[in-house]
Amino acid sequence: MFKCRDIHDHASDYLEKRLSWWERVQFRWHLFICVYCRNFIRQMRTTVSTLASLKKRPDDNTVEKQVALLMRQRQSASPDSPPKKDQ
Amino acid sequence: MDDETLITGLLAGDEAAFRYAVAAYHNLMHHVARAIIGSEFAEEIVQDAWLSVIRALPQFERRSSLKTWILQIVSNLAKSRLRRERRSIAVGDAADLAFAVSDISFQPDGHWAEWPGQWHHDTPELLLASVQLQSVIETALAALPELQRTVLTLRDVEGLEMEEICNMLELSESNSRVLLHRARLRLWQSIDKFQRGEVG
Q1: For range B36-62, the mean pLDDT
Q2: What predicted TM-score, i.e. pTM, was given to this entire model?
């Protein structure tokens, strides 16, 4: 059966639902009997959910201004550039 | 702003749409470019990618999200530049994938050497409400090796599918899973260390 080390090693695969049926059974059984690993998995879930709330934006709008300007300049400078196909 | 509104705005040359697109995707495009070719050429690749995006947008067939399509363009440009420069992909930390997943230690019987304790701040809202913790998370993210940070950002921050990430970064599925797990563990360790310090 799974030990704490296995829970640590396979935590992301568990959260991503990438474990086989038998691995998932062993994983869940270990969580049932081990409060520390339950804490660990809860904290890993929280860590992942926190990252999802962290959509990064540029620190200031300098980059936005530069790129927007560049795009508009190049767009108007090369109106006959052949469009590339959908990649 | 949804993809259709954004695409319409971009095609019409609407400045607000440009600003929105740049704010939403520019950093992400940098992540992908840096992970493939390194920081030396990343800015150039991203600028070329923006031009390709604008030129190719009328032909965008909506087979994927706009974000995935844009990142795929960055990835393709970075890879072709890589071939031109005759360099191998900047996998960085991928070379040590055979080693242990993390430096967290365990007892010989497989139990934790140091038990994971309770967290004081145990929801994303509470974690991000603490300015200090937010700084801990940002520092930990910045300290990650480039490829780990890119895989983590694309998966957990931006919500891309692992398959898309593997294609963009030319990673095998198993390598990308290891990189994602390592990055998550490092983030978890940083938050855990801070919470232990704060509680203790």
Answers
A1: 88
A2: 0.77
Instruction: List alpha helices for chain B, DSSP H.
Output: 3-11, 15-37, 39-56, 66-84, 124-129, 131-143, 146-152, 162-169, 173-199
3-state secondary structure B178-190: HHHHHHHHHHHHH
Residue type, position B78, single letter: A
**Residue from the list A39, A53, A87 with its beta carbon closest to the beta carbon of B128:** A53
Among B52, B115, B177, beta carbon nearest to A12: B177
pLDDT digits over A40-87, tens only? 999 999 999 998 887 654 455 556 666 666 666 655 655 544 444 444
ipTM score of the complex?
0.77
Question: Residue A17, SS3?
Answer: coil
d(CA B186, CA B103): 9
Measured N-to-C along each axis, helices B162-169 and B15-37 cross at an angle, to the nearest 10 degrees, of: 70
Residue B106, SS3? Answer: strand
Amino acid at the residue B101? V
Cβ of A8 within 8 Å of Cβ of B101? The answer is yes
